[in-house]
Design goal:
Chain lengths: 116, 110
């Protein structure tokens, strides 16, 4: 079955970097776009952008440029989200979600906690 | 891009119907049929319930239906069941080639 499995929770200090992985299975990885979505504690969903898994071209939403990088390793059907210069306000659950025109399925989410 | 507007909460008794609205603008909901709805029970990942305004993925009960009029989309859940209790989010494609979510609606089954 189609599945997205994300890496585990992370605890980081302010200023550090984190890389979240999203491993796809059950379908041809390069046939579907991959999105990233943020959910801060107790808050709603926020679309961060998407990456074309065919070309590797990323598109970032407003507010997610500069410190956020989407990347791929197609040899292992995995998408990555890297966040640098972490701030306390980056504390959130980060989800990957497959698809260009609808998001289905979603990964289980990765909690990134930024705290000194 | 501002978030789409949803009511913070709705409630209903088992067996009843509830409708959740999602209001956008002519730059998103009003211009595209790329409106989706997601269900998120507490502590879990979102799940696609409706796509392209009114289409249900396989496995989603036909108690869930979607519609759109002008700048407002709606999700209706009929025959409410206890398992429907969750947060619901709408999303829409926008004229900026981005996606925007609603603020979310907490559904309580009384």
């Amino acid at each position: 079955q189609v599945q997205l499995v994300q890496s585990g929770s992370e605890l980081k200090k302010p200023g550090a970097s984190v890389k979240v992985s999203c491993k796809a299975s059950g379908y041809t990885f390069t046939s579907y776009a991959m999105n990233w979505v943020r959910q801060a504690p107790g808050q709603g969903l926020e679309w961060m952008g998407w990456i074309n898994t065919n070309t590797g071209n990323p598109t970032y939403a407003q507010g997610f440029t500069g410190r956020f990088v989407f990347s791929l390793d197609t040899s292992v059907s995995t998408a990555y989200l890297q966040i640098s210069s972490l701030k306390a306000e980056d504390t959130a659950v980060y989800y990957c979600a497959r698809g260009r025109w609808r998001f289905d399925p979603w990964g289980q989410g990765t909690l990134v906690t930024v705290s000194s | 891009q501002s978030a789409l507007t949803q009511p913070p909460s709705v409630s209903g008794s088992p067996g009843q119907s509830v409708t959740i609205s999602c209001t956008g603008t002519s730059s998103d909901v009003g211009s595209y049929n790329r409106v989706s709805w997601y269900q998120q029970p507490p502590g879990t990942a979102p799940k696609l319930m409706i796509y392209e305004v009114s289409n249900r993925p396989s496995g989603v009960p036909d108690r869930f239906s979607g519609s759109k009029s002008g700048n407002t989309a709606s999700l209706t859940i009929s025959g409410l069941q206890a398992e429907d209790e969750a947060d619901y989010y709408c999303s829409s494609y926008t004229s900026s080639s981005t996606w925007v979510f609603g603020g979310g609606t907490k559904l309580t089954v009384l």
